[in-house]
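Box 3.1 — From sequence to structure: UDP-N-acetylmuramate--L-alanine ligase
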Amino acid sequence: MELQNIKRVYLIGIGGIGMSGLARYFHHLGCIVCGYDKTSTELTTELHNEGIQIIFDDNAEWIPMSFRQPDEGTLIIFTPAIPKDSQVLNFFKDRGFELFKRSQVLGLISKGKFTVAIAGTHGKTTTSTMVAHILKDSGVDCSAFLGGIASNYNSNVLYGKNDIVVVEADEYDRSFLTLYPNIAVITSMDADHLDIYGDHAHLTDSFKMFASQIKEGGVLIHKQGLPLDTGYTYSIKEAADATATNIRIENGSFYFDFKNADADIKGIQLGIPGFHNVENATAAIEATLRLGVSADAVKSALASFSGVHRRFEYIVKNDNRIYIDDYAHHPEELRAAITSVKKLYPNKKLVTIFQPHLFTRTRDFVDGFAEVLNMTDELILLDIYPARELPIEGVDSNMILSRMKLANKRILSKQDTIEAIKNEQPELLLTVGAGDIDQLVEPLKNALTNV
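Predicted structure (token representation):
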């Protein structure tokens, strides 16, 4: 499959954050783009309004005539989350189409370009968006495929006029092994996706393999302390090749200094809060300095960076109420979010609403979830969001709750959660999770503000 030959693209699971980015990219190139997803969302509505045809019925009869015979101009992309018995999926399989995963298509697009790939079990979406924003804001420019909606651009795909492409490299299903970057960033390698990898050692091996695929003359930038033998390190806690120091909070904003062998940047204001985001910014600065961005341009870009939708995103921020929403769904991500909220608002009682994501992840990290959720002042747990999984006997939200020492904790339905927040009016609220908890954001905002 050659990129220049593609005229028609069909995406099975088009509503996913990565898949929708590809849909927008090929539509931008002038291709006919169609797709299927099981449910309509705000994102699929946006795609429809942009001129992309989408069906929500798993019925092959709705597939357009122009996609019924395989040829070199037709590209079919699928997500592994699609059930194997899907009618739409099997229509293309049965007719001999070659089906591509999102990661393979990213490999195809980035082939022959200067590729900056950001990987990590957490931090990769914010870091890749920071890299893209610094390159855009500074005038160096880039194209980018992001794992979230960049608030500065209200999109998950950016188009540039040069051959630099920034991609979020996903470790799930070993997807990132289709990429051969010039610059690779690895933000973290914590145990996750054990339903795919089996154990942490195999996950680590996969990251090492990704690092080994960097093109000749390229560079690996990784967080200090990761089990990698080569590369350039960064840290906010200890001396590294690139270090953030003098981290402080002034008037609700995070400030820090950056230093490496060639640059010393003082008083950087970060447009979004969080110690973990200072760490992400340190990696992004190191990567973009290597692409010719000046120290002043880096400083200016980070001050104007407004973050990523659902990454430490302020929903309500006034004198009476603070409500922050975050995508955190792994114990270490939760630790980063809760720690930063409590540091920002040390005198406010923190109420956290958490929706566990996947039965396997809940089972594998139940003790970690229990430990980190004890850090909040009050907890509301929702039922587990199953995503692609079937239930596992004995694995539920109570598995976490029963291991916690926190006194003020409970499991509620979504509707009861909205009612509780409406009645109790917490002054500091945090919602966290990677499932459909985002559907609660607007109702919770209304519950807090319409009083």
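Summary of the box: The chain has a mean pLDDT of 94.
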